């Protein structure tokens, strides 16, 4: 029960991060690249301060940082720049689809192949997500944006898989943010070509980086060792649904029949993949 609650809290943190991002960018309070830069910077500052208050040791010189910080940078850069040209819903579909495929493929190669029930559950959940997020009207996919979002999905999948071997979730996440910071900021500044943020944008980005990203990623690293890789892959499909429901509750968006049916498919697919059926 404790693992279920912690995993649910982590998914809610990820979804809250998405809501904060939408609030800042859709309102014009921030541009995507500027939001991402302040988000990574504030996450690094908050997490480093917490680690130093607790133990004073930040494991920067560790081989885990190559994969952890490197994959975090790829995710942050790809995610932020891709949304300059991709529809939000289509971008989320590409991201989470690639995360599923990558994590399932890696675990299959390493000897932990997902079962037929887990694959079926993931497919049902992904179809439900596609039903909710697929853009209406003519779909135009920007090739550069799609490639960048694919890279972001691979980066996040690797970041999640690497987290299974992280002995200290908080210190490891803080070190990943610090090491990833220079490369991420430089790449995003080159891609942005400008800076457009007001006070509300800075506030939302700091909250996103210090709380929903920093603390959410730390919590994710804490629960990952207790989750099977296939389970960790599938449960993340709930994040866009939680974010959309949060938009209904917090941003006054409309809960359509399409959303309700799609959410039921996503949750049903996750339940099929995750829950262990007991024989009678």
TrEMBL record:
Its main location: membrane. Keywords: Membrane, Signal, Transmembrane, Transmembrane helix. The chain crosses the membrane at residues 34-53, 65-84, 90-107, 119-137, 143-162, 174-195, 201-220, 232-251, 257-275. Pfam families: EamA (PF00892). SUPFAM superfamilies: Multidrug resistance efflux transporter EmrE. Residues 1-15 form the signal peptide. PANTHER family: AMINO-ACID METABOLITE EFFLUX PUMP-RELATED, INNER MEMBRANE TRANSPORTER. This is Carboxylate/amino acid/amine transporter. It comes from Ruegeria denitrificans.
